[in-house]
Task: inverse folding
């Protein structure tokens, strides 16, 4: 059910919620957290709500969408309440803010928060430079950003590093979990040897590749080279040098990974790029500070960013071209709808 | 062994998934229902969640004359139809690369030699690294011949120290203490106890694991979790289905052996056990064994137990046959389809608190729950009329369906006079919430591949459970027939009498 409440106030929205609850039974009990989605009013909003609804199937939550509309308009709050089939296991409250109100989102969010339950803020696209100091970020126990969705992902990541506060997290980090899991499992097994050198290759503007390289640098205490891939999406390959030979995990096509170790057959594994919904579900699973992410961010400057790209000759030009190929990022937006 | 700490593992890193090491799974009895509806979908779901190792292999063994592709198709259909997570072609393709089929019967030496060759080949081609699990989804009668064949063909041998062989078995773990011991001996003859994984799928359920969180992570419940406050405990597992088509398995076994011996006694152990020192498998097991060894049936059995057999009737808008009319059951079958027993736990914590366990087929509805019923308040400063409708406080852990916890307590009825009535406070995992949480089999198969034994009952637990149940079964054998009850009700009259004697009632779940 979708209920539109044009030009309203938060107390009217709250009253509506109580009324809906009395009519429809206990639909709003048992929510474990409030998820605040901060976005500009536009097409992307719907994709983010969809991802949140899907994530709510594991974490029943109240979703508050703060959609900032035209700033030149008169101050107005349009609300929309979605429950039941239109909202997954959550209830969705969309708050469209216009005019001077657009900058005062927090004031509309505060009355809508669930009592006692943790608050998670999520900026699906552009995030404030310092999320923890943002008025909405200040309300949240956890702040989710997505540097891959920003105009300049690498710069965004650098900004995250500077502004890190406990409770910050970034979906570029979440997208890595499968890679990290595979690599860690590979090192669970013999030969138990030190990794001396690491090469991580990925798209020039892939923040996940940066983070993976930094994570390996910090945890393996090895020298890590970050190379720019001439083709492939996101992270393309990781090579861990050990005395007995190199362990490599490659994903040239963004779908299937191949794990190779000396003396063992090549093993293939499905390693698809994760959808936003997947990542969000994982993020909501934990609400405590992520020390490993912090450690990894701090390790970003340990990387050895060679000028040369992975595949030799065309390198330099490819590296230069890479940041500009923004249209190639389109598939990522599509993935938000669930690359299932 | 050198001590190796994986530099990529950090205990603070809670995101990092536990992925099984290189390995393969051999399923015996792949044509069965369980295998199609639960095992194969669970394997796909694990693969889809990225929790299976690269190169994972699945070998089916059955009498059918199938090629690898035919078996692949069966797995494909099972996955398409029953998997929990969405179908992804690239995940399926990787899984399908490792699917093999070996045809043969259990007494066929050649077939097992073929199986051994297939498994070896997988080590080379897929890199399963000599780590193999054997899932015996077959009747226990076939265990001796299969385990002997596994030993004979060398499949059960661990050829190197860093390899493992594991065997997974399903209930029934015998039909009494003696047969359970025999079965354990047969299996342990080939596989040491630490590589035997007994699946009790209830223990893979989130709600059951939540029992540990509820009890030991909260301050609220533990202080009242004892005989000072608890009046009695009811553990119920009711099913609304009948036994049509399951005569071969069920006739002569009955409800007590089928459900109480394993599921309900495990639930009792989790409800009644003391706090484990830690959640390490060994510590958890120690507590379960302790509480099971303190658990005794309370007699006299003709007053403290009840058993029944459903008769035909109308249930849920359908005409259903009684047990004796179901195909495959003898007209004079004395197999019980309803069983209720009374147990006591002889510890300081539980002295004098009866634990009532009941299970049955064709009951009112499908439900499994643990209800802890508290004593009445020692003094009520109200008029008698004010508390007429006040029952006993209860904490109910709903295991399935609609997983969650219900707390039942008295509350004032809104009106001018003081009147107190029972109300419930509900925590629900939410119907959509459970959709996303993993199936019990996913969890259990993954734990088995990781060699993590916490959720699997050991030998000793199985034998202790039989020790508890055997005296009751013996009494039933010599005391006539089970009492009939109409399909769709909550069991025979004797079940109500059994609690009525001490002024108690079964909850209607």
Result:
């Amino acid at each position: 059910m979708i209920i539109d409440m044009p030009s309203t106030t938060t107390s009217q929205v709250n009253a509506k919620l109580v009324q809906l609850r009395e009519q429809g039974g206990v639909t709003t009990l048992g929510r474990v957290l409030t998820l605040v989605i901060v976005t500009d009013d536009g097409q992307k909003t719907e994709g983010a709500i969809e991802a949140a609804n899907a994530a709510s199937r594991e974490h029943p939550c109240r979703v508050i969408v703060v959609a900032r509309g035209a700033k030149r308009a008169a101050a107005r709050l349009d609300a929309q309440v979605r429950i039941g089939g239109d909202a997954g296991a959550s209830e969705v409250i969309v708050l469209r803010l216009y005019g001077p109100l657009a900058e005062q989102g927090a004031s509309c969010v505060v009355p809508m928060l669930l009592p006692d339950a943790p608050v998670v803020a999520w900026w699906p696209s552009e995030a404030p430079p310092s999320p923890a100091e943002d008025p909405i970020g200040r309300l949240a126990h956890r702040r989710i950003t997505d540097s891959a969705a920003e105009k300049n992902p690498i710069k965004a990541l650098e900004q995250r590093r500077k502004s890190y506060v406990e409770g910050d997290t970034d979906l570029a980090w979440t997208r890595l979990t499968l890679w990290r899991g595979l690599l860690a499992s590979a090192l669970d097994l013999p030969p138990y040897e030190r990794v001396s050198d690491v090469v991580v290759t990925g798209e020039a503007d892939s923040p996940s590749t940066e983070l993976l390289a930094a994570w390996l640098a910090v945890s393996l205490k090895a020298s890590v080279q970050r190379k720019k891939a001439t083709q492939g999406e996101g992270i393309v390959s990781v090579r861990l040098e050990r005395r007995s030979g190199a362990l490599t995990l490659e994903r040239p096509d963004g779908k299937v990974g191949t794990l190779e170790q000396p003396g063992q057959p090549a093993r293939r594994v499905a390693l698809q790029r994760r959808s936003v919904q997947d990542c969000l579900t994982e993020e909501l699973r934990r609400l405590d500070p992520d020390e490993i992410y912090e450690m990894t961010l701090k390790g970003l400057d340990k990387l050895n960013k060679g000028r040369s790209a992975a595949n030799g000759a065309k390198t330099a030009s490819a590296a230069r071209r890479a940041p500009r190929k923004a249209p190639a990022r389109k598939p990522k937006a599509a993935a938000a709808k669930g690359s299932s | 062994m050198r001590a190796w700490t994986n530099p990529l593992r950090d205990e603070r890193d809670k995101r990092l998934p536990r992925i099984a090491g290189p390995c393969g799974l051999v399923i015996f009895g792949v044509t069965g229902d369980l295998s199609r509806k639960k095992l194969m979908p669970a394997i796909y779901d694990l693969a889809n969640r990225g929790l299976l190792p690269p190169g994972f292999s699945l070998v089916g063994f059955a009498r059918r004359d199938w090629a690898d592709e035919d078996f692949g198709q069966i797995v494909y259909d099972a996955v398409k139809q029953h998997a929990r997570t969405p179908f992804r072609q690239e995940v399926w393709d990787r899984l399908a690369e490792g699917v093999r089929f070996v045809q043969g019967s259990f007494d066929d030496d050649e077939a097992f030699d073929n199986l051994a060759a297939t498994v070896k080949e997988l080590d080379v081609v897929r890199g399963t690294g000599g780590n193999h699990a054997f899932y015996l989804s077959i009747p226990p009668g076939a265990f001796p011949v299969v385990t002997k064949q596994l030993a004979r063909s060398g499949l059960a041998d661990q050829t190197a120290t860093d390899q493992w062989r594991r065997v997974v078995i399903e209930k029934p773990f015998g039909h009494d203490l003696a047969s359970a011991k025999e079965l354990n001996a047969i299996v342990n003859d080939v596989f040491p106890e630490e590589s035997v994984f007994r699946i009790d799928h209830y223990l893979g359920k989130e709600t059951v694991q939540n029992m540990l969180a509820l009890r030991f992570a909260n301050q609220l419940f533990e202080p009242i979790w004892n005989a000072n406050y608890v009046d009695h405990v009811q553990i119920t597992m009711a099913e609304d289905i009948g036994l049509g088509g399951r005569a071969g398995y069920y006739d002569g076994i009955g409800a007590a052996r089928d459900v109480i011996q394993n599921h309900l006694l495990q639930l009792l152990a989790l409800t009644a056990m003391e706090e484990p020192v830690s959640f390490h498998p060994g510590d958890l097991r120690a507590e379960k064994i302790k509480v099971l060894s303190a658990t005794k049936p309370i007699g006299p059995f003709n007053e403290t137990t009840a058993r029944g057999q459903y008769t035909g009737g109308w249930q849920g808008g359908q005409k259903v046959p009684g047990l004796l009319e179901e195909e495959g059951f003898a007209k004079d079958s004395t197999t019980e389809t309803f069983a209720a027993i009374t147990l006591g736990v002889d510890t300081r914590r539980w002295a004098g608190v009866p634990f009532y366990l009941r299970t049955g087929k064709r009951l009112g509805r499908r439900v499994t729950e643990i209800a802890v019923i508290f004593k009445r308040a020692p003094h009520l400063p109200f008029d008698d009329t004010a508390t007429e409708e006040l029952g006993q406080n209860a904490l109910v852990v709903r295991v399935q369906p609609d997983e969650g916890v219900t707390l039942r307590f008295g509350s004032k009825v809104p009106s001018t006079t003081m009147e107190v009535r029972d109300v419930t406070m509900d925590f629900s995992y939410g119907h959509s919430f459970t959709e996303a949480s993993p199936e019990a089999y996913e969890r259990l198969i993954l734990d088995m591949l990781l060699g993590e034994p916490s959720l699997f009952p050991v030998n000793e637990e199985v034998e202790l459970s039989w020790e508890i149940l055997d005296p009751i079964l013996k009494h039933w054998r010599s005391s006539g027939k089970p009492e009939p009850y109409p399909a769709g009700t909550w069991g025979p009259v004797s079940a109500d009498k059994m609690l009525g004697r001490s002024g108690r009632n079964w909850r209607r779940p």
About this structure: The longest strand of chain B covers residues 230-238. Chain B touches chain A through 47 residues (CB under 8 Å). Residues 24-170 of chain B form a domain with the Rossmann fold fold (CATH 3.40.50.720). Chain B has a mean pLDDT of 89.
